[in-house]
């Protein structure tokens, strides 16, 4: 595939990421208004880089004409939550949605990866309306806490820098940091109700000030 072909190939994925970002951001606003607390803190999305698609295709032995089904995270959405408990709530909302079909789930929270990585992954099929008609696109939705995201973002950049050869010392320290992030999530969960009440109070005050 040359540059023009890649540009066309990625179009439905770009549209999927944009649409899903809007949908989950809207869901955040809605839940905040309806329930005074949203299990969604913030949402990001990205289309996988071409070099990263090629690397993964090579690693998983996916032929170039099978990328659409063989690589499930070309379209990627990340949903950040404050508390571990919120992850299941978001996952159950996604399971019930009628604008996407759940294909399968990967629970890297119950089954932490060897690296220390924790996150909840859901692979969905999203029907995107293109100029050529409807196209079913696979997308990966990663749901994680702020602490899980902090760790994963840093580990990802270190891995990118060192490629396969992350120094052992650094790997050990990253595992320790993953344990600290796990403990932080546990601590925050234990005072969840207190934190939520404080945040609501704070928001009520801010809203009051802005209407004066
Ligand atoms: P990009 O384009 O840089 O975002 P895998 O063999 O690890 O690729 P797996 O384990 O089935 O496949 O994971 P999955 O569900 O395909 O998701 C891969 C994505 O999950 C990665 O994207 C990361 O975003 C995240 N991820 C998985 N494992 C780790 C990990 O150990 N550390 C970090 N920081 N992130 C992880 P890519 O491949 O990085 O692509």
Automatic annotation (TrEMBL):
Pathway: Purine metabolism; ppGpp biosynthesis; ppGpp from GTP: step 1/2. One of its GO terms (molecular function) is kinase activity. Residues 45-166 form the RelA/SpoT domain. The keyword Kinase applies. GO terms for biological process: guanosine tetraphosphate biosynthetic process. Coiled coil: none annotated. It comes from the Bacteria. Homotetramer. The chain holds residues 1 to 212 of 266 of the full protein. This is GTP diphosphokinase. It comes from Xylanibacillus composti. Its EC number is 2.7.6.5.
């Amino acid at each position: 595939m040359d540059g023009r072909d890649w540009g066309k190939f990625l179009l439905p994925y770009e549209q999927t990421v944009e649409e899903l970002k809007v949908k989950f951001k809207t869901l955040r606003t809605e839940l905040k208004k309806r329930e005074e607390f949203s299990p969604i803190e913030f949402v990001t999305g990205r289309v996988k880089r071409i070099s990263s698609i090629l690397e993964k295709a090579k690693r998983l032995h996916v032929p170039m004409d099978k990328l659409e089904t063989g690589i499930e995270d070309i379209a990627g959405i990340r949903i950040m939550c404050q508390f571990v408990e919120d992850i299941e709530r978001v996952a159950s909302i996604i399971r019930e949605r009628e604008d996407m079909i759940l294909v399968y789930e990967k629970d890297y929270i119950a089954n932490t990866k060897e690296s220390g990585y924790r996150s909840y992954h859901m692979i969905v099929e999203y029907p995107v309306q293109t100029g050529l008609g409807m196209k079913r696109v696979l997308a990966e939705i990663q749901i994680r806490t702020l602490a899980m995201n902090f760790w994963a973002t840093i580990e990802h950049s270190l891995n990118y820098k060192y490629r396969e050869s992350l120094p052992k010392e650094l790997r050990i320290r990253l595992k320790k940091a993953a344990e600290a992030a796990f403990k932080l999530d546990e601590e925050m969960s234990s005072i969840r109700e207190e934190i939520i009440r404080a945040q609501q109070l704070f928001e009520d005050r801010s809203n009051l000030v802005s209407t004066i």
